[in-house]
């Protein structure tokens, strides 16, 4: 698990640095295109390496045997439960019904059991490029809080390579809408923005189109 967590963290750190560089240098479309190409390559590399690690972990788990495991005993053509292991003879005592038999390890196959996906410790996401919502709500926040939230959100949106997203700020006095609009106007990753159409939430929503490759 630690290897997978380290891979997630290092990949996300590199991509976040890339996004910061784009923003700091007011990148043009060509730079954004190159950045998105790099992100796509990192996505493919990440998924490939993660799949390799999962396969490795699964294989290791299937090969390991422990007391209590359900197994299939090939020479007896039956299932049983491992009792204990004798290292000197490389054999297991296996309980099959009311009978306990001694069986060589190479005649025992572990029975796969359906297990839930391993839970990732809090703060670690196995998919740093996905699961970014298409919208975010900043209603009830101050202008400063909203802009900080939107900034982090758009970084994730850029990494996930989403094209259009929605910022829900509500109508109110219009101050929050204006602050967000002013911020988006100079954002290097934003192609354009507009208020939502009637069926999108009207003036209570800002629709953001990101720069694409």
Structural description of this entry:
The structure is a single chain. The two termini are 34 Å apart. The chain has two domains: 2-57 and 120-210, Ribosomal Protein S8, Chain: A, domain 1 (2-Layer Sandwich), CATH 3.30.1370; 70-110, Roll (SH3 type barrels). It has helices at 2-24, 29-63, 143-160, 175-185, and strands at 70-73, 78-86, 91-96, 99-104, 108-110, 135-137, 164-168, 190-195, 205-210. The longest helix is centred in the first third of the chain and has 35 residues, at 29-63. It is elongated and about 80 Å long. 15% of the residues are buried. It has a five-stranded antiparallel β-sheet with strand order 4-3-2-1-5, with no helix packed on it. It has 213 residues and is α+β, with helices and mostly antiparallel strands.
Helix-strand blueprint:
Layout: H1 2-24, H2 29-63, E1 70-73, E2 78-86, E3 91-96, E4 99-104, E5 108-110, E6 135-137, H3 143-160, E7 164-168, H4 175-185, E8 190-195, E9 205-210
Parallel strand pairs: 6-7
Antiparallel strand pairs: 1-2, 1-5, 2-3, 3-4, 7-9, 8-9
Helix pairs in contact: 1-2, 1-3, 3-4
Class based on secondary structure composition and strand pairing:
alpha+beta
CATH architecture of the largest domain: 2-Layer Sandwich
* Strand portion: 15-25%
Mean pLDDT: 78
Low-confidence stretches: 117-128
Number of strands: 9
In the residues, how many domains can be counted? 2
Measured distance between first and last alpha carbons: 34 Å
CATH class of the largest domain: Alpha Beta
**Order of neighbouring strands in the sheet with most strands:** 4-3-2-1-5
Helix fraction bin: 40-55%
Largest sheet: 5 strands, antiparallel
Order of helices and strands: HHEEEEEEHEHEE
Number of helices: 4
Q: Give the oligomer, counting copies of the same chain as homo and different chains as hetero.
A: single chain
Shape: elongated
């Amino acid at each position: 698990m630690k290897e997978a967590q380290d891979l997630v963290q290092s990949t996300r750190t590199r991509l976040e640095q890339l996004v910061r560089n784009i923003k700091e240098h007011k990148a043009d479309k060509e730079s954004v295109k190159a950045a998105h190409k790099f992100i796509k390559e990192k996505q493919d590399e990440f998924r490939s390496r993660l799949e390799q690690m999962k396969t490795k972990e699964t294989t290791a788990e299937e090969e390991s045997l422990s007391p209590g495991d359900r197994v299939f005993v090939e020479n007896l053509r039956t299932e049983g439960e491992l009792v204990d292991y004798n290292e000197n003879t490389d054999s297991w005592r296996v309980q099959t019904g009311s009978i306990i038999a001694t069986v060589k390890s190479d005649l025992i196959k572990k029975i796969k059991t359906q297990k839930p996906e391993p839970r990732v410790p809090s703060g670690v996401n196995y998919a740093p490029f996905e699961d970014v919502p298409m919208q975010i709500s900043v209603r009830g926040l101050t202008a400063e809080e909203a802009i900080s939230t939107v900034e982090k959100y758009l970084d994730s949106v850029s990494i996930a390579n989403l094209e259009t997203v929605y910022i829900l700020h509500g109508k109110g006095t219009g101050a929050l809408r204006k602050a967000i609009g002013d911020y988006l106007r100079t954002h290097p990753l934003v192609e354009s923005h507009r208020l939502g159409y009637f069926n999108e939430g009207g003036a209570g929503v800002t629709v953001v189109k990101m720069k694409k490759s």
